[in-house]
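Hey, resending since the last one bounced:
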Amino acid sequence: MLPIPLPATKPSPQEVERIGDEIAVLAARIHAATYHLLIRLREFDRAEGWGGGFASCGHWLSWRTGIERGAAREQVRVARAIEHLPRISEGMRSGTLSYSKVRALTRVATDANEESLMEFALHGTATQVERLVRAWRRVDREEEASQERQRHASRHLSLVPDGDGMYNLRAKLDPEVAMALKRALEAASWALYRHDEEPARDTPAAAWRADAIGLVAECALRGGLAASASANQVEGGDAGRAAATIGRADRYLVVIHADESVLRESAAEGDAVLEDGTRVAAETSRRLACDASRVRMTHGKDGSVLSVGRKTRTVHPALRRTLEHRNGGCSFPGCGSRFCDADHVRHWADGGETRLDNLLLVCRVHHRAIHEEGFQVEMVGGQARFRRPDGAVIPDVPSAPALPADPIEALVQAHAAAGIEIDAWTAAPRGTGERLDLAWAIAMLWRPSREVEELAVEAS
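The C-alpha cells again:
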C-alpha cells in the first residue's frame, strides 16, 4: 500500500472530523491486533520457542521484532498475566481497552478485583488508570507494619551442600535486607540476561537468579569487600582476629584444580575439582579457563608438589581493553550485554593463541551455551558466526516478515472474521471527563489482602 499523500489545501472541518474518526478506528484495531499478538506470544513463550540461544522470551522478541528490550519484557509480562484475567482480556480483544490500560491493570488485577478494576478502566483515561494502580500498590503499609516483629525474629540463612555436587541456599530475610538483595539480583540479572523483571514461570526465573547471585558475589569481592571487612575489624581493636580471619586477598578466590589434560577438547580423562572436592565438568573447566588466572603446579608421582609457577592472566588487561573496544558487548546476535567473559574461539589448551583474532566477548549465558550446551562459534572474515547445536546459523539480523499488499485491509478482514466490530468510539473512555478523586477511588475499590482472603474463605 502506497503512503497516503498530504492534500494540497487545508481540509474542511468535516474532513478533519472524518480523519479523526479514522484514527480512532485504526487505534482500536491496533488494540485488538495487539491482543492477538500477546496471545501468540504467550503460546510461543510457553513452548519456549525462544530457547535457541536466547536468554529469555523478551530477549528473543526484541531481536526478532526490533522493539526496545524493556518494551519487549513488558509485553511478555502482560501476555502471561492476561491468561488469568478473562474480562480484561475480552476488553482488549474487542479493541475497547488499550494496551496501555491493560499493561497497568495487570500489575494489580486478581480474580477478586478484576471486575471493579475493569469498570474503572472503561470509564477512565489511561492516565487515570496508571495513577490508580500506582496508588493501589502503596496502601497496604499498615498490614505490613504489623508483621515486622515476627519477620525479624524468624530471619535465617544457610548454605548446605547436597548429594549431587550442588548447594542449597535457604534464607528468610528482613524486608530491607531482602530488598537490597533483590535489587542487587535484578541489576546482576539485567546485566547478564536483560530478562523480564517478574517472569510468571518459576523455573527459568530461579535459574537466572542463581546465576545473578554469583555475579553479585564476584562484584562484592572484586570491589574490596575483604579489605573493608579487615579495616572494620582493625578499627574495632581486634587486629589479630582480622589478620587471622581475613588474610590475603587470595583467601576469597574461587579456585578450581584441573589436570592440564582435562582442558583439552579431546580429553578422555582427568580431574577438575573445587577446593572442597566437588567435581566440575570438563567443559565447565574449559569455559572458566578461557578468562581466568592460571597457576601451573607440578606434582610428583606420589602427589607431592614439586613446583608452583607464577599466577598469570589468560587474557592480559591491555588485550581485554582492546577486545572490549572492538566488540562493545556480548557478540551473540541480539544480546550486547556489557558483563562478558573473553572466550577463545579455539581454546588455548588446544593450541589456540590468546590473540585478538582468536578472542571474542560473550556474556555468561552464551559462554555457557558455547561450552556446555552444544552451540558453536567460528570466526569468518574477522566476524563471529554462531550456530545452534543442529548446525543452523543464527543470523545477526533476522529476515523481515512477509506482509500483505494492504496490511490495514487484512486487519479489517481478520477482525470481521473474528466477529469484532469496531467504530470510532470503541476505545473512547465512557466517563464524562470529571477530575479523578484518587482517594475516593482507592477507598471504594481497594481491599487489603487479608479481607480478600477472608471473603474467599467465606465463599468456599
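The first strand starts at residue 156 and ends at 161.

Sorry for the duplicate.
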